[in-house]
Amino acid sequence: MRYFIELAFHGKNYHGWQVQPDVRTVQGVLIDALSKLLGTSTDVVGAGRTDTGVHARQMYAHFDSMDVIHPVWLKNKLNAFLPPDIVVYQIFEVPEDAHARFDARSRSYAYHVYLGRNPFGIDTSWQLYNQVIDINKMNDCAALLLEYTNFKCFSKVKTDVRTYNCKVTEAKWVLNGEELVFVISADRFLRNMVRAIVGTLLDVGTGKKSIKDFMEILKSQDRRQAGLSVPAKGLFLTQVNYPENLLKNKLCVPK
User: What does the pLDDT read at residue 131?
Assistant: First the structure.
């Protein structure tokens, strides 16, 4: 039997999602909890990787079990067993060939910038003050992302990928009071891609780079031409989308 887990986590205390030796990761903590509760070694496969310090409002993962599981029972047990910065929202059965990573159609991220100082957002936003930012110029550049497919210029240099192509379907800045949020959706993302895009767009917004410079960076496919990566703490994975038929059992499980 294969099951999907829908969860969320605060990334401050974790070295990202993926299991790594000698460090605490979200996947590692989840594997440990599931294995103890189910009484057998249980692997967990996530919808993707998040870097150290990155948060997730919605993440999916799958695991297999030889026994039939009562989803609500296991959800409640996991939430009692897991640390409070990881929360399981739902567990539901999926087809045996369903895959949390490969079946995902798209993913969405949001990067939070706070224009000022806020002691309650220290761990979840990048705080900028005494900065004049041209949001219209940043949105003009963000719209250009939908016209390109190769994003090597925003990828971490030492990355083992077969292609740097991504299909961006949404990219925009939204201002709500003093909170400035960059929202982006794509079929896939490269390592460090969103943080590098945000850093480069903020260079445009603060006048360090022009719209023409941004266009040249996109054409260059050269990471050295783009801006610095912004801090991980402001980045949230906000949504993972799957085909409707894969999530049909989710609606049948009480929350």
Answer: 87
